[in-house]
């Protein structure tokens, strides 16, 4: 049997800690929260634009509301997965 080992040389300890965290699975809640943020942001913005068309103030308010909803959903998902 021919087994090979690889040696990874990192430039600094922070890079090593980052990659060990990402590859170890501890970074999964952060990745899931980022994905949830963008999904909720885009969905909420599209729904708010569709239902608030006649109003003149809808565009900036819709963006802020959609961003707030996305942030809250991302924090909740991140928190629930981290526990």
Overview of the molecule:
By secondary structure, this protein is an all-alpha fold. The chain has a domain at 25-82. The protein contains three helices and no strands. α2 (28-51) runs antiparallel to α3. It is elongated, with a radius of gyration of 20 Å. The model has no long low-confidence stretch (mean pLDDT 85).
Write the layout of secondary structure elements.
Elements: H1 13-24, H2 28-51, H3 58-82
Q: Percent helix among the residues? A: over 70%
Biggest sheet descriptor = none
Q: Helix count?
A: 3
Q: Low-confidence parts lasting 5 or more residues at pLDDT below 50?
A: none
Q: Please state the structural category.
A: mainly alpha
Number of strands: 0
Query: Radius of gyration, Cα only, in angstroms?
Result: 20 Å
Strand-residue proportion: under 5%
What is the H-and-E element order?
HHH
Give the N-to-C terminal Cα separation. 42 Å
Identify the overall geometry: elongated
What is the typical, i.e. mean, pLDDT? Answer: 85
Give a short synopsis of this structure.
The chain is an all-alpha fold.
């Amino acid at each position: 049997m021919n087994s090979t080992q690889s040696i990874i040389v990192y430039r600094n300890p922070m890079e090593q800690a980052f990659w060990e965290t990402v590859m170890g699975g501890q970074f999964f809640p952060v990745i899931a929260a980022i994905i949830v943020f963008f999904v909720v942001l885009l969905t909420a913005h599209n729904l708010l634009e569709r239902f608030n068309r006649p109003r003149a103030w809808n565009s900036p308010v819709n963006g802020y509301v959609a961003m707030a909803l996305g942030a809250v959903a991302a924090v909740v998902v991140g928190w629930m997965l981290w526990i």
